[in-house]
Design goal:
This protein is mainly α. It folds into three domains: about 30 residues; about 60 residues, Winged helix-like DNA-binding domain superfamily/Winged helix DNA-binding domain (Arc Repressor Mutant, subunit A), CATH 1.10.10.10; about 50 residues, no CATH class. Helices cover about 60% and strands about 10% of the residues. It is built from six helices and three strands. Helix 2 crosses helix 5. The longest helix is centred in the N-terminal third of the chain and has 27 residues. The two termini are about 35 Å apart.
Length: about 170
């Protein structure tokens, strides 16, 4: 692809990603019970299980103070519990409660329903292609930001596959 055509295509990609990010922010603002950005924390805890705050912040690529504030708010809402780490009393372990898991399940259903409605006329192959390209973009951006190598555990999208549960 020539330089100007490539630059134009990259501009189109950035514009689409920006538009999708704006839609996601709007969806987050409309989450029930003031859940807001805490949905990412809940999704990570639902996926990873009980974890230290520092590991959670690292997993989410967020500052520790941001995650701590979100966990405190989720704790007040009964979505997570925090306890002292028996191996290191200076740190806390955080886990999702049944109420928090119910919120994540509802959010996953809502997001899945939204994407299903938006892609109702897409073929399974188109969805697989989109997933493959998004994974490549995510991995490339991650490598660029963190100086890491490509993931060895990236799923093979060349054949049939089981779709992972979407996270809010």
């Amino acid at each position: 692809m020539s330089g100007s055509v490539h630059d134009e295509a990259l501009g189109d990609v950035v514009r689409q990603l920006t538009a999708i990010a704006a839609i996601r922010r709007r969806l987050v603002r409309e989450l029930p019970q003031g859940l807001g950005n805490g949905s990412s924390v809940l999704a990570a805890l639902a996926h990873c299980g009980e974890t230290r705050l520092r590991e959670l912040a690292h997993h989410l690529d967020l500052d520790m103070s941001v995650v701590s504030r979100q966990v405190a708010q989720l704790e007040l809402q009964g979505a997570v519990v925090r306890r002292a780490n028996p191996e290191d009393r200076r740190s806390s372990l955080v886990s999702i409660t049944p109420s928090g898991r119910a919120w994540v399940d509802a959010l996953v259903r809502a997001h899945t329903d939204s994407v299903a409605a938006a892609t109702a006329d897409w073929t399974p192959q188109e969805l697989t292609t989109l997933t493959t390209l998004l994974e490549r973009l995510r991995d490339g951006l991650s490598r660029r930001m963190h100086g890491t190598e490509p993931r060895d555990d990236a799923p093979d999208r060349s054949g049939t596959h089981a779709s992972p549960a979407p996270l809010p």
